[in-house]
Design goal:
Layout: E1 3-7, E2 10-13, E3 18-25, E4 34-39, E5 46-51, E6 58-60, E7 68-73, E8 78-83, E9 92-100, E10 110-113, E11 117-122
Length: 123
């Protein structure tokens, strides 16, 4: 059974940092693109960041560019999201996604999804 388990969320003050992790089990994703999405209350799920299978290519939403960094460790079957200079508008449930089938990493076209981890940024 394939599972993606996110961790590292929590409550942080504006300007602070958090590092999210997404550990995969049940199969390896070392040959697959992975990504992070988020969903705030009352809003649709939105793209945050994506990373190619090798880690050599990354893409970010404009709202997080320069503040967030996506990375991966294929030996650990894990993808990370380092979030710096957090803002209250970053408050959301963050989801990890793996094995992209769509044409763009910005679209929520991935086969596998985690259950999400809550990130709350206070002002």
């Amino acid at each position: 059974q394939v599972q993606l388990v996110e961790s590292g969320g929590g409550l942080v003050q504006a300007g602070g940092s958090l590092r999210l992790s997404c550990a995969a089990s049940g199969r390896t994703f070392s040959n697959n693109d992975m990504g992070w999405f988020r969903q705030a209350p009352g809003k649709e799920r939105e793209f945050v960041a994506g990373i190619s299978w090798s880690g050599g290519s990354t893409v970010y939403a404009d709202a997080v560019k320069g503040r967030f960094t996506i990375s991966r460790d294929n030996a650990k079957n894990t993808v990370y999201l380092q979030m710096n200079s957090l803002k209250p508008e970053d408050t959301a449930v963050y989801y990890c996604a793996a094995d992209r089938w769509g044409s763009s990493p910005r679209r929520a076209e991935y086969l596998y999804w985690g259950q999400g981890t809550q990130v709350t940024v206070s002002s």
